[in-house]
Amino acid sequence: MLRTHTCGEMTKKNNGETVTLCGWVHRRRDHGGVIFIDLRDRYGLTQVKFDPEKDKKAHSEAESLRSEWVIAVKGKVALRPGDMINPKMKTGEIEIEAGELSILNQSKTPPFELDEEKAKEANESVRLKYRFVDLRRNKLQEIMKKRDDVIRYIREYFHKNDFIEVQTPILANSSPEGARDFLVPSRLHPGKFFALPQAPQQFKQLLMVGGLDRYFQIAPCFRDEDPRADRHPGDFYQVDMEMSFVVQEDVWNMCEPLMIELTEKFSHKNVLNKKFPRIPYREAMEKYGSDKPDLRFGLEIRPITDAVKDCGFGVFADTVKAGGVVHALKVDGGAKFTRKEIDDLTDLAKSKGAKGLAYIQIKEDKLQSPIIKFLGEDLAREIIASVGAASGDIVFFGADKWRAVCDALGVVRNKCGEWLGLKDNSQAAWVWIVDWQMYEYSELEEGRIDFSHNPFSMPQGGLEALNTKDPLDILAYQYDLVCNGYEISSGAIRNHDPEIMYKAFEIAGYTKEQVDEKFGAMISAFEYGAPPHGGMAPGLDRLLMIFFDLDNIRDIYAFPKDGQCRDLMMNSPAEVDEKQLKELHVRIAKT
């Protein structure tokens, strides 16, 4: 070993010991001929003193030292004078009196300063290009360490509960998981492609058929999706798990304790409800305007369709007559919103398809709104009373098709919660969203029925429901786990019956031949005694983002992509030479 100790471990107990430290020059200071160096490694900082009266050679060599040079220092641990003790540093009571200095490597001037506050000022693209320098920051190293701690804890939890960790293939087949696949051309099979797995869905179900009744994996997943603050483009990791001979309750009872333990051990948050609430999908949409509601605050949306169906306000009455709905959102203390803020909320509602955003402000018992003259004072006050609004509040209204109203008022609710400071980061509001619709109308093809969630879920009511019910009325044994407004996991009790699977895909427009072609391995396996099974897959990276109160999920990764799904450090994606393309039987079409 080049070093005897790390830079973060020594205290006054080591006084008088001769030690060798290795690390990076964090700071260099000259004080009247004496040179001080703060030496840094991932364990901390230690002050090193080069005194010409103690060792002229080491002092002379130290004069050339610059920021981020890599050095080894041998010297004696000494107590700092009382007025030079730094109580903010773990090693603040001691320093190293240098006797020998070895310069292990020099460094160019870093592209940005590594001081935490100053590093934030650096352009993100520069930090990503020089990620190997950025990773030297204490904050990022702490995140990497905590990520490792969380993964270790998860592994111990599942092993303790008799799960087996299995690594599933990376080169797989294309699957309808809801996002675009990353395709890998096959050199040995011209014209054919592997797909990087969006999730290990089929493989983990096949493991259940294989008798491995409790499986888990810290699984890499690949989806060609547009980036968001809470979604890393390209690749991410999920805590994939599956269990045989279970119903929904069994999966929930396995997952809830883990989430509670992780929250309490690795974040500063208090779990609001140790027994996670369970809210049906439709109820969540109506009450909170979202299938991933933030339950750290109330602001519940209420239907008022019956109350306004015969009112004189055409926007409300005509909407109801056309089969739509009218919902109201009371915001406590929202009467203080300015005209500009209400306009901003209106634009937000319009971004979700709303035609506008009606409102009534209550100021000292007076109602203020452009719609009062259409509703009439009496009806307006009835509505205000029905939603429990009082002086100082504002009530927003949405009138349109059910989904459009839910979505529009949902984003308004979310923004109001943010503006009013209701999103308490010291709280973790976990909730299960259950009873999802099995099908919905396709967004890509008008009139076509498509899966609304996971195509491999078991429909509630089984084959009979598929044969007798309107597809849009069929519910599935599907569930999402949500925390503080973020979807953490999807899961389901799986469809393990070939006949039910063929029928489920038939409703979504797939022929038997197409199902056999895409999912032949699963269909074949289910014909050889498949057990009832189910599971889920919490997103590891999003979970850590919430735990650590990060604004962007990129900080969870050692080597993240930027907002355009590029690795600026490795310069990828990149062009490849013509020889490689020929070997893969691929030709680039020029546009």
From TrEMBL:
A cellular-component GO term for this protein: cytoplasm
Q: Where in the cell is it found?
A: Cytoplasm
Any one Gene Ontology molecular-function term assigned to this protein's record: nucleic acid binding
Residues bound to L-aspartate = E177, R223, H453, R494
Region listing for Aspartate, in residue ranges? 201-204
The family note in this entry says: Belongs to the class-II aminoacyl-tRNA synthetase family. Type 1 subfamily.
Q: What is this protein called?
A: Aspartate--tRNA(Asp/Asn) ligase
**Organism, scientific name:** Candidatus Falkowbacteria bacterium RIFOXYA2_FULL_47_19
